[in-house]
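Same chain as my last thread, 89 residues:
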Amino acid sequence: MGYFLISYDLGAAIKDHRPLIEEIQKIGNTWQCMDSLWVVKSNETSGLLKERLAKHLKGDDKLLVVGIKRHGASYNLNKDCSDLLSKKI
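reply #2:
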């Protein structure tokens, strides 16, 4: 079980984020820290998460999935995300 940072950039100006967001939320415990930045807790690897989420992306969309550990720093995130990063990871 680990924590992962998921970030995406959907290329088209008008894009329906719902399918991707719904898939992210199905992973398990999720925290949305910014518009397109999530922290998730999962038993899957970053590669498996990438494959799972990439099914909801199109040609010029971008996706980043990174395992995270302590030693992070943030500024002005919402309280839930800030608490998660400072107390649980």
